[in-house]
């Protein structure tokens, strides 16, 4: 079996397939792991799946201990009952530097051949499946799993070329050494403004991950520290301090993008996982987690049959409802969070502040729950 892509979804898939006694090799376009300068949250659902795959994440990153929604100036809107949620879900949420997670997954995948600097140009099926590299090299297998991201070449083979879907706002991201009395150990703090948001998250080791969003035409974003500082001038002191302590070259600028949900995410002995299958906006923090879930379900499906096409269709059916819900809910939550108009924004903040704990907890636990 060939897995195209050695990111979070690809490495998780490789481990899951090996656990199912499937011979697997990974093909990755980059010559080495990219130093991204970003971090992410691995929620309880994905932590439990990784444990099931034999990957212990609890000693890495920083366990989420406190999650708060605040106004732009730092006034508390809502605190999520994280301790109760963690107990209900059976595992913590881990905030972790992306490269550290990739290192953990690469260690778990030790012994699996990973062919780097091998960019796929096309896919063909003639009994078996062949990938053709941009340099003309070929590799053939009984089945192919596309884990090659939002601009997946394997996806284009299945569904045709299509443009990504813009969400209408830009994201600035950075990881920095950071200590501030406004950010405690295990904190994840989300600040909501008018068409803007800011997240400040402790990822352990004296470091913080921050992200900021602003509704604007993507082509106008310059990605400079000056631009980000101007966008969040007057916000909470810890927000301004985080931006001030960030080197200009540490800031990454990306457009917020997803894709409409695919009705068919596989064909014959070819299927997709992660962002190649169902790229989503980040509002539920489930992009990486859903890719890890995909890997687990795919491995389980391949353990039940020796025919890749049969296993792939079983996997796709099993993942259809949840991944569709995650894509659609992530987009709707994102639009709610980015509201600019003062009236609906006031209503939004009022509802979040006054809804019963059980209602708020149920919404977030729905994204963070996965049955093994």
Written overview of the protein:
The protein has 372 residues and is α/β, with parallel strands linked by helices. It has one domain: FAD/NAD(P)-binding domain (3-Layer(bba) Sandwich), CATH 3.50.50.60. The protein is 36% helix and 26% strand. The longest helix is centred in the C-terminal third of the chain and has 30 residues, at 308-337. The radius of gyration is 21 Å and the shape is globular. It starts with a strand and ends with a helix.
What proportion of the residues form beta strands (DSSP E)? 25-35%
Strand arrangement, major sheet:
6-5-14-15-16-13-17
Under CATH at level 1, the class stands as Alpha Beta
Tell me the series of helices and strands, N- to C-terminal.
EHEEHEEEHEHEEEEEHEEEEHHEEEHHHH
Give me the CATH architecture, please. Answer: 3-Layer(bba) Sandwich
- First-to-last CA distance: 24 Å
Count of alpha and pi helical runs: 11
Helix content: 25-40%
**Main β-sheet, in a few words?**
7 strands, mixed
CATH topology: FAD/NAD(P)-binding domain
Q: In terms of topology, how is this protein built?
A:
Layout: E1 2-4, H1 8-19, E2 25-27, E3 39-42, H2 44-52, E4 62-63, E5 66-71, E6 76-80, H3 82-89, E7 94-97, H4 98-108, E8 114-115, E9 120-126, E10 128-133, E11 138-141, E12 144-146, H5 153-159, E13 165-177, E14 187-192, E15 196-204, E16 207-215, H6 225-231, H7 237-244, E17 252-258, E18 266-267, E19 270-272, H8 287-303, H9 308-337, H10 342-354, H11 357-368
Parallel strand pairs: 1-2, 1-12, 2-8, 5-14, 12-19
Antiparallel strand pairs: 3-7, 4-7, 5-6, 9-10, 10-11, 13-16, 13-17, 14-15, 15-16, 18-19
Helix pairs in contact: 1-4, 1-8, 2-8, 8-9
